[in-house]
Amino acid sequence: IGRAIGCERRTFSMSPEIGYFCGKILSFWKNDVVITREEIAGLTANLLSTPAAPTAPTRFSDWLRENAGTLGRRYFSELARRR
After folding, report:
1. pLDDT averages per 10-residue partition of the chain, 83 residues
2. Distance (Å, rounded) from C-alpha 63 to C-alpha 28?
3. Which among 32, 10, 35 is positioned nearest to 21, based on CA atoms?
4. What is the pLDDT of residue 40?
5. CA separation for the pair 54, 47 (Å, rounded)
6. How far is 66 from 22, CA to CA, in rounded Å?
7. Per-residue CA distances from 51 to 29, 40, 55, 63, 73 (Å)
8. How far apart are CA 41 and CA 38, in angstroms?
9. Among 3, 20, 44, 58, which has the highest number of CB atoms less than 10 A from its own CB?
10. Which residues, other chains included, contact 38 with Cβ-Cβ below 8 Å and sequence gap of 6+?
């Protein structure tokens, strides 16, 4: 994704506790909920993927290429979206 939008970032591992702590800081800074303990538990339990075949009509790589110019340019608050 970073390469597609021209903003490569390094990735690194950290403990779930440190990740949650960093998420809390970002949540406070953005006045939003960035990540929850339940989401971290789901990610560490490998629940982000499924063995089933994709069902969407659009390939993610195609969508990414089409939207690369606007992707990641603005922050959208999940809490504000739900209000």
Report:
1. 86 93 95 93 90 91 93 85 80
2. 31
3. 35
4. 95
5. 15
6. 31
7. 36, 20, 12, 21, 32
8. 5
9. 20
10. none
CB 40 within 8 A of CB 16: yes
Tokens coding 33: 């909920």
Q: What is the pLDDT of residue 72?
A: 83
Q: Which two tokens stand for residue 83?
A: 């209000």
Where in 1-83 does DSSP place strands (E)? Answer: none
